[in-house]
Specification:
With about 450 residues, this protein is mainly beta. It has a single domain (about 10-430), classed as Methylamine Dehydrogenase, Chain H. The protein is about 5% helix and about 35% strand. The chain contains four helices and 30 strands. The protein has helices at about 135-140, 215, 220-225, 425; strands spanning about 15, 45-50, 65-70, 80-85, 90-95, 105-110, 115-120, 125-130, 140-145, 150, 155-160, 160, 170-175, 180-185, 195-200, 205-210, 235-240, 245-255, 270-275, 280-285, 295-300, 310-315, 320-325, 330-335, 345-350, 360, 365-370, 390-395, 400-405, 415-420. A four-stranded antiparallel beta sheet has the order 1-19-20-21, with no helix packed on it. Strands 4-3-2-30 form a four-stranded antiparallel beta sheet, with no helix packed on it. Strands 5-6-7-8 form a four-stranded antiparallel beta sheet, with no helix packed on it. The longest helix is centred in the first third of the chain and has 5 residues, at about 135-140. It is globular.
Length: about 450
């Protein structure tokens, strides 16, 4: 990774992470979900995995994979239930539910196509119902749809790049749940880079973070890191927005491409954590008495001087006690007690695989899931190119293996983002008997 400016390249890198939800511990959803979605509690039945196609592996296409996650169903537990291919490789990356959880939107970082899957009719076997291939035209030039974040009746999508120079200048794009374009919000001057977005309704605040443009994230990692000029073109800012007005009101300096946003869940906590990539620093982002926000480095993750680590994802537990931090290069998850967010304490460390990317906790905090793929051109090669979904039990002290799915052996590809599903939730919804609300492609213009 890198930062803007040659001097800044020697500074510490940061990948912002946190959560912006209002929830109780008992009713907590996945800790990165939108507060505008209905909450699900109890055992998850499915893990939906948006997966990058890999040449020579299965059909080679990007796909949405459903894996059984309920041990009470031994016929599906830890096994692939279904896989829906979208045809071709588009750099599948992130996806998210609509505000009613009926649909799952997923995007490709390469060609900016978006796919919408219906989960409600049969949550074990999602169905592709619509493809949006007009995202770049609709948005006025945003490319690289990344975060899909549910708003009431709308889907908020963050971009990573633009179609003019394919650099880091980008914006936020809103669609209706029916797939109709609503508006584009370009990132402000001096903070043009984008990545993630999260909303805190009780504060009327939205936070966005930053990464890099298409011409960087589509390059092989080794080649990119050897290009000093390219390494100057990474974002180092986070923007605080007035959410209802959709206006930026503050820019935070968070060097080195702040990524996923995971703020504290408890309503009395107005803080979030950030993670610095190459120097592996944990940063605390918190609101002051005057309502403004500040970021402070509070802990080291591993020893990046001894070995490059690349801190890629974190997850904050529903009670705001534990922070799970994944480092890609050494394939390790480190767990911190952040009861005192100003002084995180390392309480557990475990190697998950040769490479490691995403981490997601279950709603009750008892299970933790991991995937292996970062980006197609950034993943390791040879024997270290293990591609997996792994599930672990978390008892507050250690991670104990539950099951693992080898995505290469199963002919599936490179697993990335994870989301959870539950059969009973969909059975409880009236919309399961109602007609689909996603507009046909010719109606969305």
């Amino acid at each position: 990774m890198g930062v803007q400016g040659e001097d800044a390249m020697r500074h510490r890198f940061a990948w912002l992470c946190g959560t912006l939800l209002v929830a109780t511990v008992a009713g907590a959803d996945e800790t990165c979900m939108s507060p505008y979605m209905p909450k699900i509690t109890g055992q998850e039945d499915y893990v939906y995995v948006w997966t990058l196609g890999q040449e020579g592996v299965g059909d080679g296409s990007d796909k949405l994979v459903t894996v059984g996650a309920n041990p009470k169903d031994p016929a599906t537990y830890g096994k692939v239930i279904s896989a829906v291919s979208v045809g071709g490789r588009h750099e599948a990356h992130h996806g998210g539910f609509t505000d009613d959880r009926r649909y799952f939107w997923a995007g490709g970082l390469d060609d900016s196509r978006i796919w919408i899957f219906d989960l409600a009719a049969d949550p074990a076997r999602p169905k592709l119902t619509k493809t949006i291939d007009s995202f770049v035209k609709d948005s006025g030039g945003v490319i690289g749809p990344h975060t899909f974040y549910a708003l009431p009746g709308r889907m908020l999508i963050t971009g990573l790049s633009n179609d003019r120079d394919k650099g880091g200048k980008t914006g936020l794009v809103e669609y209706s749940n029916a797939g109709r374009f609503v508006q584009t919000l370009w990132l402000p001057p001096g903070a043009e880079y984008g990545y993630d977005a999260r909303v805190q309704p009780r504060l009327n605040r939205m936070l966005t973070s930053s990464f890099t443009g298409w011409k960087n994230y589509m390059r092989p990692l080794g080649e990119l890191m050897g290009d000093a000029e390219a390494m100057k073109h990474f974002g180092n800012t986070m923007v605080v927005w007035d959410f209802h007005a959709r206006k930026p009101i503050q820019t935070l300096d968070v060097p080195g491409a702040p990524l996923e946003i995971r703020w504290a869940l408890q309503p009395t906590h107005d803080w979030a954590f950030t993670g610095a990539a190459l120097t592996s620093k944990l940063w605390l982002v918190e609101q002051g008495a005057d309502g403004r926000f500040a970021a402070t480095a509070v802990a080291d993750v591993g020893d990046p001087q001894a070995q490059p680590l690349l801190l890629v994802d974190i997850s904050l537990s529903a009670d705001d006690r534990f922070l799970f931090a994944d480092t890609f290069m050494d394939g390790t998850c480190r767990v911190y007690d952040v009861s005192d967010p100003h002084h995180p304490k390392l309480v557990h460390q475990q190697k998950i695989g040769p490479q490691l990317n995403m981490v997601s906790e279950s709603w009750d905090g008892e299970r933790v899931y991991f995937t292996s793929s970062l980006l197609a051109n950034w993943d390791k090669r040879g024997a270290d190119n293990e591609q997996f979904l792994k599930a672990y039990r978390w008892d507050g002290r250690t991670l104990s293996p539950l099951f693992a799915v080898d995505f290469t052996k199963e002919g599936l590809g490179r697993p990335h983002i994870m989301r959870f599903g539950q059969a009973q939730f969909y059975k409880n919804q009236i919309y399961t008997a109602a007609p689909a609300r996603v507009a046909r492609l010719d109606e969305s213009r």
